[in-house]
Structure formats: structure tokens, C-alpha cells
Amino acid sequence: MSVQALETSDASPAFWQERVDLAAAFRLAAQYNFHEAVANHFSLALDETGERLLINPFGRHFSRIKASELLVLDETNAQEAMDARRVETTAWCIHGPIHRIAPRARCVLHTHMKYATVLTCLKDSNLPPIDQNTMRFFGQVAVDEGFEGMATTETEGARLAGVLGDKSVLVMGNHGALVVGRSVAEAFDTLYYFERACETLLTAYMTGKELRVCSDAVARQTAAEWAVYLEDACDLHFAELKAMLDEQSPGYKD
Predict the structure, then answer these.
(1) Which residue, among 184, 176, 54, has the nearest Cα to 120 in the 3D structure?
(2) For the chain, which has fewer Cβ within 10 Å, the N-terminal or C-terminal residue?
(3) What are the pLDDT digits (tens) for 171-213?
(4) Cα dihedral sign for 104, 108, 111, 114?
(5) C-alpha distances in Å from residue 89, one per residue of 58, 80, 84, 218, 225
(6) Strand runs (DSSP E) across 158-225, as ranges?
(7) Are 43 and 107 a contacting pair, CB within 8 Å?
(8) How many CA atoms lie within 13 A of 86 on its CB side?
(9) Is the full-model pTM beyond 0.85?
């Protein structure tokens, strides 16, 4: 696939709704201040193998991304796209391998959002179960302690995929957060709640008081209850967020 075909490939009706959903996720991330300048990247696999994916073009602010602008990337055009600065190098080097290797990674969202990134800067970057939101992620967070600079090779992406394993969240030490989901709706809901969980934890740390940490048994039970709640809540949440966008910033659908 040539670089010239990056935008037009898979713009068919069969894939259009997925383009629209991913474009919505970018706009929503900007609204929630999860973005950072024109950096960071979201992607969505177009098949079960994870070989072909939708991803944001380099240099476009999250708040302005449209469905039609998303790029289709695979092994045949990735290097050419990076050389031409059509896609950011770390975007492909992180997302490409994770889509191919991680079992739950249909959608991959990577940000440097404030509270999650602060957590990555702490010596202990774990998320103790201190409230319902933190307990949602009990047993679902992997912590990477191997940061050695920006991810500019696919080998680094494969390493990150190995650390992530079957978890839904990767705390990238000294870097940022990455979440995966089986749909854009699931991944964005995870991103939203993970940032809220990190905000609660870090606010609690700022009090200087001892944390009220629940037992593993209670945390595990609460996580299981979350799983039942999330059977339809992710889709309902994302549908409402898109309805808000339709009122405020409908251009994401273009």
C-alpha cells in the first residue's frame, strides 16, 4: 500500500463507523485534557491479526482530527510513511507490535495525561485498591520499568507488548499510560476511568495521611462487579460522549 493511499484505503462504509469512533476518541481526549501538543497516538486494528491499523497523522492536533484523515498503516507502507513524516515514528513502533502481539489490543490509546503520567514517575507506580475506581483495575495494570528513551524501533514495541501481556493498562515508567480494548468505546472508557483512578490516588497521597487500602479479596470482588457493570456501560458512555460531540463539534465525522 502506497503512502498516497493512506487516507483513502478502507474508507468504505464497512469501516467508516470505526473511523468515526476513533476520530471521536481524539476529540474527546482533547476535551478532557488527555492530549499533549500534537504528540501521542491512538490506533484501531482493521482485522483480527492486527496487521493493518488506523492511526492519527503526524502533526494534527487531537481537537481537529476528522474520520477521513486517519491513516491506514501496515508493514508495506509504515517505513515510507515515517520517512515522509506522515506518521510519527514512535506511533508505529509502539502500536504496530502491540496490535499484533497483545490479545486484547484491538484499540490502543497512548497518552501522557496528567495524573497517570505522574504515577509513572513514582518509584512505586502501582495502583493500590483504595476506592471503586482503583479497584476496577485490580489485576489489570502492568508496570514497565524498562524505559530507555523514546520508542524508535519495533523491538521496543514488542518489548512493551510483552510487559502488557493480557492486561488492559500499561503504566509506562517515566513516560505515560497506554490502554487497550476490544473496541474504541471500551478503550476510551478504560482511559477515562484510569485517569480518574490516578487522580484519586495522587490526591490521597498529597494529604500525607495513611491510605485506607482494601484487601485483595474485596478488590477482586469489586473488579468482578465492575466487569458485570461494563458489559454495556462502555458503549452507553461512549454513545453519550459522541452525542455531546454531535452538538458541540460534529466535524469529527467528516
Answers:
(1) 176
(2) C
(3) 999 999 999 999 999 999 999 999 999 999 999 999 999 999 9
(4) negative
(5) 9, 11, 10, 42, 39
(6) 169-172, 176-181
(7) yes
(8) 20
(9) yes
